[in-house]
Amino acid sequence: MVKPDRSRYVYLYLPSSEDKARWESLARKAGVPLSRFVIEVFESAIAEGSEYKPRKELMLELGRLRAENRELRDDLRQKKIVIERYEKELRRYRSEAFLDTGFEGVRRYNREIIRILRRGGTVESYRLLEELNIDPGDSDLVKAVSSQLEDLEAYGLVARTAHGWRWIG
């Protein structure tokens, strides 16, 4: 029988007896003695090339990352609000030609309306507004969309049905 070499021993003091019981349970599940389990876990951590950092340092880094994540989320939320406002203003600008009854010149139709209608089937008016990201309470934009649909109907490209609008162009 081989006699253990005392120079190779490492004594480990765990924070609590519950931690030791947890480690022993994990080692039993892995089917190895506790010493072998600790060695395997430690060696795999070294093999991954991860630098050892004390728990306190890891917790501080985690706190910094969470704060940075919160700041980035807030920044993103603000930018989304600004983009929504710009998109709304752009929709309003593009629909001015359809709101002015005395407009003379070339009107550019909203390509998105045509794309939605050309997908096929019938599109209900509220569904069309929803897909265009237009608030049904915004009477000017709703009027501009209605005006475009009526013009497209006059050109024979769309038809109004009992269930909404249908592309026939």
Question: Your description of this structure?
Answer:
The chain is mainly alpha-helical. The chain is built from 6 helices and 3 strands. It has a 3-stranded antiparallel beta sheet. The termini are far apart. The mean pLDDT is 86.
Helix-strand layout with pairing:
Elements: H1 17-30, H2 34-47, H3 55-99, H4 111-118, E1 122-123, H5 125-131, H6 139-154, E2 158-161, E3 164-167
Antiparallel strand pairs: 1-3, 2-3
Task: Describe the structure concisely for a colleague.
With 169 residues, this protein is mainly alpha-helical. Helix content is 62%, strand content 6%.
In helices, the fraction of residues equals 55-70%
Beta-strand content bin: 5-15%
Query: Which term fits the overall shape?
Result: elongated
Let me know the number of strands: 3
Structural class: mainly alpha
Write down the overall mean pLDDT: 86
Oligomerization category of the chains in this entry? single chain
Task: Give the count of helical stretches.
Answer: 6
The largest sheet has its strands arranged as: 1-3-2
How far apart the termini lie comes to 93 Å
Radius of gyration: 34 Å
Low-pLDDT windows of residues: none
Report the sheet with the most strands, covering strand number, pairing sense and barrel closure.
Answer: 3 strands, antiparallel
Q: How do the helices and strands follow one another from N- to C-terminus?
A: HHHHEHHEE
